[in-house]
Specification:
Elements lengths: L1 H23 L9 E2 L3 H11 L3 E6 L4 H16 L7 E6 L5 E3 L5 E3 H7 L7 E5 L5 E7 L4 H21 L4 H8 L1
């Protein structure tokens, strides 16, 4: 009887460990980062709630994009600490049809070109008019420091969104 209890206890412990590992794995968050498709509607939500948009340009076969998403973006998307921002992704060279901030229907590829996105991952911090309000983050080459860079950019975007201003440098970057 004691031997049977030990086996049951070990099986229960093993099952619990596997279940916890699965629940805490970034793979279970894979669908938590929403794709951006209607930016004119997002702009209304952003204005109503004074929230900036973090727009992540990614690519299907981008290893760094997957790491960034698992390490930072997926946890952010489910964290209450980041409810003051909207987080969306867009495939960099995709043929997905999106509605831009002005209501024009274009491809994700054209949307990427408008913002002069040339590599992935690229994170833009946008206001409701689609203007950059914090310095964009390019690539993912220093994972141990990236969280600090991301938080600093979010703080700047939130401050500019609340004050209603876009930095002249970021606005000029988009129009070049």
């Amino acid at each position: 009887m004691k031997y049977t209890q030990q086996i049951v206890s070990r099986k229960t412990l093993l099952f619990t460990a596997i279940l916890l590992a699965a629940l805490l794995s970034p793979a279970t968050w894979a669908d938590s980062l929403q794709r951006g498709t209607d930016f004119s509607q997002l702009a209304k939500d952003m204005s109503a709630n004074t929230q900036p948009l973090i727009l992540v340009f990614d690519a299907e076969h981008c290893h760094y994009c997957a790491r960034l998403q698992a390490d930072h973006l997926d946890p952010m998307s489910v964290s209450e600490d980041y409810q003051h921002v909207l987080l969306r992704s867009l495939e960099f060279e995709g043929d997905t049809v999106v509605t831009d901030f002005d209501g024009q229907v274009i491809t994700a590829r054209e949307f990427s070109r408008r913002y002069r996105v040339r590599l992935t991952p690229t994170l833009l911090f946008l206001n409701a008019e689609g203007e950059e309000i914090a310095e964009r983050l390019l690539g993912y080459n220093t994972p141990e420091l990236y969280g600090a860079y991301l938080d600093r950019a979010i703080e700047r975007a939130v401050a500019r969104m609340r004050s209603g201003t876009a930095s002249a440098a970021e606005t000029a970057n988009r129009s070049q």
